UniProtKB/TrEMBL annotation:
GO biological process: proteolysis
Organism: Roseivirga echinicomitans
Matches recorded under PROSITE patterns: PROKAR_LIPOPROTEIN
InterPro entries to which the protein is assigned, alphabetical: Class_I_gatase-like, Peptidase_S51, Peptidase_S51_cyanophycinase
GO molecular function, one term: peptidyl-dipeptidase activity
Function: Exopeptidase that catalyzes the hydrolytic cleavage of multi-L-arginyl-poly-L-aspartic acid (cyanophycin; a water-insoluble reserve polymer) into aspartate-arginine dipeptides.
Record-given protein name: Cyanophycinase
UniProt signal peptide: 1-18
NCBIfam families: cyanophycinase (TIGR02069)
Amino acid sequence: MKKTYSALLFSLFIVALGACSQKETTTSETTYSGGKLFIIGGGSRPASLINSMIDESGIREAGYALVLPMATTLPDRAIESGKKQFTDNGILAVGAINFIEGETPTKAQLDSVRNAKLIYIPGGSQNRFMDVVAGTEIEKAIWESFNKGNMIAGTSAGAAVMSEKMITGTQLLRPDDSGFKVIEQGNTDLADGLGFIKNAIIDQHFVVRSRFNRLLSLTMENPNLKCIGIDESTAIVVSGDKVKVVGLSQVLVFDAQGKAPNLQGVKLGAKDINLSIYLDGDEFSLN
C-alpha cells in the first residue's frame, strides 16, 4: 500500500511539473530552433560529466528532468540511479515515466514528456526502447520536447537510439559470435532509431569493448555517413551540426568520404577512410 501511495504521489508530481511547464512555454514555442543532444558512451558517469549535461541543458535555471527507462528490464533500478545522478548534483526536480509497450499513454504523461527540459534515456536494449516508442505518441512527444529547444540525453542503449540508423547489436551473418571478429558486408544489423542525427551512426562503449570492426564495416557500407564511436565515461554534445566532446576518454569518427567500398565476396575494402580521434574539449562538425 505504501509503495502504491508513493507511486501515486510521484505521478501527480511529474504531471504537475509538466502542466506548469506547458503554461510557461505556450507563448514562446516559436522562438525555439531545436534542442541539444547529450550522448554518453556508457560506463561510469563521473560528476564532471553529469554536471556538463546539466549545465548544457539549462535545467539549473528552470524546468525538470524526466527519466525514460524503457530500454531496461529493471526500470525501478534505472529510475533510482537515473534520478540520483541529478539529485546528487543539485537537481531536485526530476521524475520518471516507464511507458509499457502496447499501453496507451495518458495526455498528462505525454505533456510531461513534451515539456521536460531534459529527457534522459538510461541503458539496456535499444531495441526494447524502440519497441515501446516507435511510431507512437510517445516518440512524437520526445520530438516535440527537442523541437522546443530542450535536451535529449542518453547513455549506452540511450546513445544508440539517437541516430536515424541505429545499431541493434545483432550479427546477421554470425549470430552465434560473441563479438564482431571480421570486417564484412551485411553482418551488422541496423534498425530505425529516434532519428535526431541523420548524417551519422552512433556506437558506444567503443574503445573499451573494441568495436572497431563493427563500426568500420558500417563506415564502408554507409560511405555518406560519419560513424561515431563514443567510449565510456565520455559524451558528445550535439547542437545542430556542431559537436563538442566532454569526458574522460575518446571519441573516434570514421568517414569514408562518400567513396564506395571494394568487395571480395562479403569482405569489405576501402582506401582513404578518414579517422579522427577527439579528446575532452575538442569540437567537430557533422557536415
